Amino acid sequence: MSQNLQNSPTANGQTNSTYDVIIIGAGISGMYQLHLLRGLFLSVHVFEAGTNVGGTWYWNRYPGARFDSESYSYGYSFSQELLQEWNWSEHFAGQPETLRYLNHVADKFDLRRDIQFKARVTSAIYNENENCWQVGTEDGATATAKFLITAVGPLSAPQMPNIEGIDDFKGEWYHTGLWPHKEVKFAGKRVCVIGTGATGVQVIQTIADQVKHLTVFQRRPNYCAPLRNSPIDAATMRDIKAHYADIFKKCSESFGSFIHKMDPRSALELSPEEREAFFEKLYAEPGFSIWLGNFGDTLTDQKANDTITEFMRRKIRERVNDPQLAEKLIPKDHGFGLRRVPLETGYYEVYNRDNVALVDILNSPIERITATGVKTADAEYELDMIIYATGFNAVLGGFERIDIRGVGSQTLKNKWADGPRTYLGIQTAGFPNMFTLVEPHNSSTFCNIPRCIEQNVEWMTEAIRYMQDHNYERIAATDAAEDAWTQHVYEAANKTLFPTVDSWFMNVNRNLPEKKRTFLLYSGGGPLYREKCDAVAANNHEGFSMR
Ligand code: NAP
Known about the structure:
Elements: E1 6-9, E2 15-24, H1 28-38, E3 44-47, H2 56-59, H3 71-74, H4 80-85, H5 95-108, E4 115-116, E5 121-127, E6 132-137, E7 142-150, E8 172-175, E9 190-194, H6 198-207, E10 213-218, E11 225-226, H7 234-242, H8 244-253, H9 272-283, H10 289-292, H11 302-319, H12 323-329, E12 343-344, H13 347-350, E13 356-360, E14 366-369, E15 373-376, E16 380-382, E17 385-388, H14 397-400, E18 403-405, H15 412-415, E19 434-436, H16 449-469, E20 475-477, H17 479-494, H18 526-538, E21 544-546
Parallel strand pairs: 2-3, 2-7, 3-4, 5-18, 7-19, 8-17, 9-10, 9-17, 10-13, 11-12
Antiparallel strand pairs: 1-2, 5-6, 6-7, 14-15, 15-16, 20-21
């Protein structure tokens, strides 16, 4: 493989640039992938739709956006210098700080010189004769590369609700995933939030005391757990810096690569008093302790799950003054932890405020958006601002926005119409030299993301290095390897309770009813995933055909 950057004119007069590798996306994974591939002396070009780096943290600048991972477990671990020079100000940093951090990384490693901003990729077509990918952007430009790496992010395609009349509204409206770069003012305004997932919860608790009136339109409630954020003082930061190796080791040994490790005991082997004391301890701890530091079988055994579910229901009842309101905030269709747990700070207490109303749209559905607000089956709500916290076309949405075609012009969309099929969540058969970072069936998508991103990116880089060493030009997952991995993904999922519940983990999105219900993530956990990836690499990349 050689460094072969060159430009040639295309039929429409645009320049067609040629690279060794094209990466789509300059979020956390795309940035690190660029950095590592430079080490292989490859010409690498990144296309990024935004005007700057950061991905998720660039787009999701809604009020209250912040980490649910401990800050110091989230940063990149690959550079000691970076670890030692960066100070986190809070245990769970807010979005502005995280974006500053990612900009700092881009500056430090001089990443921007290979990133083309405001360049949304719309097509990626594999040319079998030339063994290369031709990538097209929204503005009609094209570029060609031997390797295509998608770093498009699992939660990057914002999804508007399928409610009639959205365009009729004359007031301000925003989707959280496309939050404007200007300041949005809430004072004196009648605002509503539609959606009560992890995003909606952060917005609601943040703006409740800023708005004149807040109406929350809730369809299905989630179990929310306390974040328990606090500042990091200088001494604590020094201590964190001295113990990064331990922190990352702990992450690497846990299911989701967080500092929280599932308790191997069964929830059912303790007496009710012991169990209660354990749950109380976890509830008082910061972060995902109560979810990912709990008894492992709370996620695999319905009876065990019932114990923590009842505990969480009691907590909601204790925190919400109006018992009828509390019942509305308690999920009835799933147990605790089986959908992504939103972490909160004073979320339930928001509903004790006089200027906040909860509208249960399961019982009184939204009929339409009007010029002046929202009309449900029972009432009409006059509003100055609508905030859509309605989530994403999760995991697959980032791909569906791009016309990706592999061997024989097969489209990825068609191939994955009944659910993704992948090998290690890194490749899909029929799309040679295309790698998918942090995507379906890949443990990174069910993880303290940067921890798993590093594994993914490093594995990918080693695969390309292996190809360089052996003079291979083409790598393609075999059908057999893909079948076996896809089967393994489903078997691992079926050992848990996740498939029993509708969520974005299960590709369920009521705004996109055509989606097939199927497990999108990898639930075998980080350590097992890493072990399997390492075994494949050690075995001459078995399951991939190379030539
Ligand atoms: P989400 O979990 O998919 O929640 C979307 C919400 O909008 C749900 O409450 C949903 O109700 C509601 N909704 C969607 N369409 C609707 C409609 N037509 N009418 C009424 N309600 C509608 O999306 P999200 O909150 O943006 O979170 C997505 C993921 O992003 C999270 O699970 C998490 O992984 C990640 N996230 C992370 C952080 C963090 O790390 N700090 C923060 C925020 C988000 P139903 O449940 O009834 O469909």
